[in-house]
Amino acid sequence: MSRIFLTILNKEFLSFLRSIGLVIVVLYSFTEDIYISGAGIQIKPRNVKIGYVDNTGGGISQKLLSHLHPPEFMPPKRFKSQRELNRAIFNKEIIVGLIFDEEFEKDYRQGKKAQLNLLLDSTAASQAFTTLSYLQNIVLDFSNLNLPIEIKSHKLFNQNSDNHSFMALTEMLSVITLLIVILTATVFVKEKEDGTWDIMLLMPVDPKLIIIAKSFSQILIVIAGVVLSLGFVVLTIFDTPINGSFWAFILLTFLYLFSGAGIGLFVAAVSRNVMQVAQLSIVIMMPLIFLSGAWTPIYAMHPILQALSVFSPLRYYIEGTESIFFRGTNFFDLYPYFIGVLILGIIFYWYGFRKIGRLF
Predict the structure, then answer these.
(1) Positive or negative CA dihedral for 296, 298, 299, 300?
(2) Which residue from 1, 50, 104, 163 could staple onto 76, CB 3.0 to 4.6 Å apart?
(3) Which residues of the chain have pLDDT under 70?
(4) Is residue 219 part of a domain?
(5) pTM, rounded to two decimals
(6) Mutual orientation of helices 313-322 and 274-290 as an angle, nearest 10°?
(7) Angle, CA 279 vertex, CA 17 and CA 196 arms, to 5°
(8) Cβ atoms 199, 209 nearer than 8 A
(9) Pairing relationship of beta strands 96-100 and 50-54 according to DSSP bridges
């Protein structure tokens, strides 16, 4: 039994290596794609275009504007009137507009409530509202408020507020999710496309062993991709901290991959070609990714969606991975994530196993 299992396993590894296109896709996904996401996606302001209208004729407005400098902001561009400023925002020439009215400097020097009008292009919501928080801090520095309290901020888990390592790790989890589904489904669907499905059915081998060996081979391929990505991109280029146990992450990943493999078996059972595999994989995985909290925090979702999120194995995988990498959570304290991934992995794999087993 074990000899047959290893023979099928070896055959799938050789088939994967002979498929140059598939090898390139996997290598690209675990290296270049993760690097682009980590290095290219910016959450904080970067080269934000700002315009302003200054009717004060004084120096306070210019001192305030002098705090807006590269690389966060482009040099502020002056407009003659609010109408021109509005037109520039409408034409996407600028994202943020500042309007200093005639009484701004006078009210500021007299200790009155000086009003600074602000226009934001909210179609660029992330950059615009992050810029708003920057501007609020700059204005507060000018306010000279004499408050009887002192605010001290302590940044936990990501002291440098570096989003590059976080984005790289998040992208790696998304790549793992999509690849395990697509690779597992493709292994079986290619048998249909190549016309070798009937030959496989005539093999004097237990069909259950064939299903397990084929799906398990893809789990090992993805595990190898994860190690490659961690070694050359996530931990090396982006210097992502791993404060917990590396082997706890590998074990959590291994358990999680059974959920994806189960979905892949289901997709293989209902697909006729590789194109259908890609389409169905995206249709099925997008809701699971959305419910995982990867895009929107769980607590910010509608109560119904929060309840449905418990059925997304990616939720437990993401929370467990973040706890391992950033929080350094003890191995035994990770049991909620291991239990969630294990239970859903068993359910998904069992269902996919039964679904494709009917074709044998």
Answers:
(1) positive
(2) 50
(3) 1, 40-44, 58, 124-126, 142-162, 197-198
(4) yes
(5) 0.78
(6) 60
(7) 45
(8) no
(9) parallel
Residue 266 and residue 309 in one domain:
yes
**177: in domain:** yes
Same domain, 15 and 70: no
Q: What secondary structure does DSSP assign to 156-171, as a single string?
A: -S-TT--HHHHHHHHH
What share of the chain has pLDDT > 70, as a percent?
A: 90
Residue 96 pairs with which residues in a beta bridge?
50, 120
Domain encompassing residue 81 = 50-143
Max CA separation in the chain (angstroms): 93
- Confidence at residue 357, expressed as pLDDT on a 0 to 100 scale: 83
- Strands 77-78, 50-54: pairing is parallel
3-state secondary structure 126-145: HHHHHHHHHHHHHHHHHHCC
- The DSSP string of 66-101 is TT--TTTBPPPEE-SSHHHHHHHHHTTS-SEEEEE-
Residue at 102 is within a domain: yes
116-120 and 96-100 strand pairing: antiparallel
CATH for 116: 3.40.1710.10
Phi-psi category of 192—alpha, beta or left, where left has phi over 0 and alpha has psi -120 to 50? Answer: alpha
Say how far apart CA 102 and CA 44 lie, in whole Å.
32
Domain identity same for 58 and 107:
yes
Specify the number of domains making up the chain: 2
* 305-310, Cβ contacts within 8 angstroms, sequence gap of 24 or more: 310/340
